[in-house]
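Final report, Chapter 2: Outcomes

The project's central promise was a pipeline that accepts a single protein chain and returns its three-dimensional structure in a standardized token representation, suitable for archiving and comparison. That pipeline is now operational. To close this chapter, we reproduce one record exactly as it appears in the project archive, with the input sequence first and the structure output second.
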Amino acid sequence: MNKDEIKKDILKDVKRIQEEMDLLFDHFYKIRHSPVLTSKRLWRPPTDVFENPNEVVILVEVAGMEQKDFSITLSENILTLKGERKEKTQFSRTTYRNMEINYGMFERNIYLPDDIDPNGISANYKDGYLEIKVKKKKKKKGKEIKIE
């Protein structure tokens, strides 16, 4: 096995551990914020986080909202997204046959890498998706020195 293959295996293992930890935290989050344990009901919108060499992109699926319904803050390297989706049903007596759409308050904390630029954040809400882009700091290239 060469160095690159070992590096890829390690990165796969780290990614798998991160996914398992996310599932574990999601489980504890649901228990801690259970309607039985708290008076308010929180939900977590589906979120994708990906990056390229220039930026980190957070894509959140939150249909039926307006841009004013969101609050986005950055503290250290934690981006916090809060909001509230109002229920569309306005009937006084409603009997649901099926209810899968989440309403009410939500909050997501996204842990960002260390090389982000806190001044390079933009957000756009369109077609039910909130897209947040966080620019990365430009890396200074080191001087190449030839060693004999």
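Archive annotation: The longest strand covers residues 116-126.
This record, like all others produced under the grant, will remain available to the consortium after the project formally closes.
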